[in-house]
Design brief:
four-stranded mixed beta sheet, 659 residues
């Protein structure tokens, strides 16, 4: 497909009703956009057809993406079945060629087998806790304030210069009082904490903290009384050998605190002597005439992600007749339907080849693993398999690696959970949804729907369990709490089907998609093994529920190449030097250098290896836990077809034949 003319005319073909634009959205690939503007959910995806104008405009800025789209367009014209999964991945392609690096090795320029990208993360430093240890809270009697970051009075030097004390910019004297309280704090055990080092930086002198704690009533030790007390920060310092903790000195602040503080430790009320609780920092109180200009603590919240590059090739062999017919179709000179018999046999072969290539690419995008152990460390890239010059084996051109699949990256970061053949428990899933919602909202996104993809039988089991669950727990009908058999369509093509459920406990909706990608994994092993245990294990192993944030998944394109060779070449092939005519074949070689990109693993969760049972529980009127269990009422058993075959007649196996 030519990309040389930015304003090329639209390609049309004659039909009985006029002409049909072969670069209309029905022929060009679709663009499925899922990002933060759509709530990071496929249910609100923006689907559009790639326009001819946009396609032509790629010639100068995105030539590699344009070539990929051109290949997809030809495959679509050949009749390759459109799949929502494939369209979704192809819609997320990003140009990463500027990130590809080269190095000099023995004077030879070698392309690095990986790229490095910046990953930005969110820092949470809102909550601290009092350490759970003896002596975590005590009076600061005998403490040396000079060892703390505190505000001290600056003295005058010999040249009348101001000698600034440990407070650096502070001239308000920080002094220990009788009621000064010393606390050891850390970041606690929150699932959303950021492991920031040296937390003493967040407790700046002159600032305030509020502590939410409790003390036991002397009259009833089983009834703790909650309270909140405010303190002014006197100073802070780190803990030797523990960069996740800090020591802070605090002076009580409140309506019951004397102007100069409490005169003795015995006069200090219990709520100003906390030994456990949550600590939060508050805004300071500094007058414009006072000297105070501490820097708020900052942390480097950017790290590098390594993405390995892989080059995959698709090759086609066509004869001159096919190429000429395809050219006429693209120029609008031939009706492809009326003249299909001219080129259909070879086109059908290319259709199957294109389908197989895209299926293989999809699976590689999800499941690829390192090419060997040396790929686990980017510093060892020189130990990877090499690509050498055909004429000089000692001349290394590139190093080979596998682009790591999305599932592989999630597994390496602990985001794949093996249920070990147990039932899919929706109570546990509801808890997972809450964590996913919180993790995704840390980046500032508003998450109202979380997508899950699975096979059709598991989707049906979830529907049956949720239907009964809503009735038993809330006395609600499914019409009120769910939307069933929803479809995502474009130009009359159904790309995805899903059910969506309200989950009141989490404050989010769960959209369950079912896709043939997951159905086929189960269908291929059903009844494969004579041993019933092995057969059950195979079925369980093939089941999966993927809770993915599609706005965080992208396919990186680092380049593409396309070469056409013709055979035979009479000038170099001795067999054809004395022949006047020959059957000419054209070898079309196309390659793409790509990688799978995943920025924030905590936004995803994969569940796998579970049984054909879905469970969920509720409390009955007597507060007894009742478990609803639903097993598959559907099967993958195909319908029986009677096929008669005459002698010598070759009957294919239906859709999907490779021959």
């Amino acid at each position: 497909m030519a990309l040389n003319n930015q304003n090329h005319p639209a390609h049309t073909s004659a039909t009985e009703g006029g002409s049909t634009d072969l670069l209309q959205p029905g022929v060009l690939p679709r663009v499925i956009k899922v990002d933060t503007s759509t709530g990071c959910t496929l249910t609100r995806a923006q689907i559009s057809g790639l326009t001819p104008k946009r396609f032509a405009e790629m010639k100068n800025t995105e030539i590699h993406l344009a070539r990929t789209i051109a290949n997809a367009t030809e495959a679509k014209m050949l009749g390759v079945v459109e799949r929502g999964f494939t369209d979704l991945l192809n819609s997320s392609v990003r140009n990463i060629k500027p990130l590809v690096n080269k190095i000099k090795v023995a004077g030879q320029s070698v392309i690095m087998p990986f790229i490095q990208r910046r990953q930005r993360s969110v820092l949470n430093a809102n909550y601290f806790v009092i350490a759970d240890e003896v002596g975590a809270g005590a009076f600061a009697t005998g403490e040396d304030i000079s060892t703390y970051k505190a505000m001290t009075t600056g003295s005058i030097g010999a040249n009348r210069e101001i000698l600034i004390g440990q407070g650096e910019h502070g001239y308000i004297n920080s002094t220990l009082r009788t009621d000064t309280w010393k606390l050891k704090i850390n970041l606690g055990s929150s699932d959303w904490k950021t492991p920031i080092p040296n937390p003493e930086r967040y407790f700046m002198p002159g600032g305030f903290v509020i502590i939410s704690s409790w003390f036991e009533d002397s009259g009833n030790s089983n009834a703790p009384n909650a309270y909140e007390s405010q303190f002014e920060i006197v100073g802070s310092k780190g803990v030797t050998g523990d960069d996740s903790s800090a020591i802070v000195l605090l002076n009580p602040v409140g309506g019951d605190v004397p102007a100069g503080g409490f005169a003795s430790t015995g006069a200090v009320p219990e709520h100003y002597k906390p030994t456990h609780g949550v600590v939060q920092t508050l805004a300071n109180n500094v007058n414009d005439y006072e000297a105070w200009c501490y820097n708020q603590p900052t942390n480097l919240n950017v790290k590098l992600i390594v993405n390995w590059l892989q080059t995959s090739r698709d090759s086609r062999i066509v004869n001159e007749e096919y190429r000429e017919t395809l050219k006429k179709i693209m120029n609008g000179e031939v009706n492809p339907f009326l003249n299909s018999m001219v080129y259909q046999p070879l086109a059908d072969q290319n259709k199957q080849a294109a389908q197989r290539y895209y299926d293989d690419m999809d699976r590689a995008f999800w499941f690829n693993q390192p090419i060997n152990e040396e790929q686990n460390n980017p510093n060892n890239y020189e130990n990877l398999p090499t690509v050498s010059d055909p004429e000089d084996p000692n001349c290394t051109l590139e190093y080979k690696a596998n682009a790591l699949g999305i599932k592989t990256m999630l597994y390496n970061t602990g985001r794949v959970r093996d249920l070990m053949g147990e039932a899919l428990d929706l109570d546990t899933l509801f808890g997972d949804l809450y964590y996913l919602k919180r993790n995704r909202e840390q980046d500032g996104d508003k998450v109202l729907v979380i997508d899950g993809m699975t096979d059709r039988i598991t989707a049906n089991n979830i529907f049956e369990a949720m239907n009964k669950y809503f009735i038993k727990k809330y006395d609600w009908t499914v019409e009120r709490t769910a939307k069933i058999d929803q479809k995502i369509e474009h130009n009359g093509i159904i790309l995805f089907q899903y059910n969506i459920y309200d989950i009141p406990e989490v404050g989010v909706q769960l959209a369950i998609f079912h896709d043939p990608f997951f159905d086929d994994m189960i269908n291929v092993v059903q009844g494969q093994y004579a041993n019933s245990t092995a057969n059950t294990n195979a079925m369980n192993r093939s089941r999966a529920l993927w809770l993915l944030d599609w706005s965080d998944i992208h396919k990186g394109s680092a380049g593409s190449n396309s070469v056409t060779r013709k055979s035979p070449n009479a000038s170099i092939d001795r067999l054809y030097r004395c022949r006047m005519n020959s059957v000419s074949r054209e070898y079309s070689l196309r390659s793409e250098t790509w990688t799978a990109m995943l920025d924030r693993p905590h936004r995803h969760l994969l569940l796998e290896n579970f049984s054909n049972t879905v469970t969920v529980s509720y409390k009955d009127d007597e507060n007894t836990t009742v478990t609803i269990s639903k097993s598959g009422s559907l099967t993958y058993t195909p319908p029986l077809m009677a096929i008669s075959q005459a002698a010598g007649e070759n009957i294919g196996g239906g859709v999907g034949d490779d021959d």
